[in-house]
Amino acid sequence: MALRHAVMVALAGGESTGYELSKRFDHSVANFWPASRQQIYRELDRLEEDGLATARRVRQQKRPDKRVFSLTAAGREAIDEFIRSETAPTVVRDDLLVKVAGLDGENRAEVAAAVRGRLAHHQGKLDAYVELRDVSLSGTSEEEFLAGGPGQPGFGPYLTLLRGIAFERESVRWAREVLRLLG
């Protein structure tokens, strides 16, 4: 998958400026496909050049004009083609796992410190995802929300959020177990 597909999926949520899209991206697609704001802006320009998105200028008083992007029919078709394409399995490349694999009696403290750092990272992401889940549900229960099915706005992003929560929970559980075993 290319960043292009992730940006198009975020843009499929509706017309937006680059700034608005990067915020939307941060709360959805970035959970599994991180990108900087600059990368998103560059990709929006490429999408426009390739006819997959259009941009219109909006004049603002006391501020520079802004561009508002939307997907074209070709952009929506590109998303559909991507969805129909074969998906490669995830490959894990994690330097922390290499450090843990290299654990011996001499480097135990350093490995434990690395695991503690990763634990803090995953706990922070888990907390953010749980908060985002609560905001996404808007006071309804998860069962009620999911009963709305795939036609409901936000259904797909919510399913990816659930995967992110499960991943972070397991990462936190694993790090705590490693630290317990390291004493």
Number of domains: 2
Q: Evaluate the radius of gyration.
A: 20 Å
How far do the termini sit from each other? 41 Å
Uncertain runs are none
Proportion of residues in β-strands: 5-15%
Structural class of the secondary structure composition?
A: mainly alpha
Number of helices: 8
The main sheet comes to: 3 strands, antiparallel
How do the helices and strands follow one another from N- to C-terminus? HEHHEEHHHHH
The largest sheet has its strands arranged as 1-3-2
In helices, the fraction of residues equals 55-70%
- Quantity of strands, as a count: 3
Average the pLDDT over all residues and give the rounded result.
Answer: 91
Q: Notable features of this structure?
A:
183 residues; Arc Repressor Mutant, subunit A; 2 domains; 8 helices
What would you say this structure looks like, in words?
There is one protein chain. The chain is mainly α and 183 residues long. It has 2 domains: 3-84, Orthogonal Bundle (Arc Repressor Mutant, subunit A), CATH 1.10.10.10; 95-182. The chain contains 8 helices and 3 strands, in the order αβααββααααα. It has helices spanning 3-11, 18-26, 37-49, 73-84, 95-101, 108-137, 142-147, 155-182, and strands at residues 16-17, 53-58, 66-71. A 3-stranded antiparallel beta sheet has the order 1-3-2. Strand 2 (53-58) and strand 3 form a beta hairpin.
